[in-house]
# Entry
Amino acid sequence: MSQPAQLPRRFGLHRRYDLTGVSGTGLVAYGTQYPTGRVTLAWCCSEVQSVAVYDDIDDVQRIHGHGGLTEVRWIDPPAAPEPTASAHPTGFTVLNARARCATAAQQTA
# Structure
């Protein structure tokens, strides 16, 4: 079973000032950004707790940011780029642009 190339990245939506009087301040929602860029946002601050889906994190900030009064605080770091590996015909393996000699067992396989 292979592992996914990239896992979703979690964040909290923190509000410094509540313009509408509905959600309050502090942590008001949890979110997840998927490798496709799509975002889910789960509200956790009022009697009505809903989940919404957005095309990207920019939409979340544009709709719920209230001019900087609400911010996205990432829980997970950005995904590291996947290392690239390729076989070289002379017995070298190229990993992240660094050549490494193959062992005798690897050369005869």
Notes: Helices lie at 57-64, 104-108. The longest helix spans residues 57-64. The two ends are 23 Å apart (CA to CA). The beta strands are 9-15, 26-33, 39-43, 51-54, 70-74, 85-87, 92-95, 98-101.
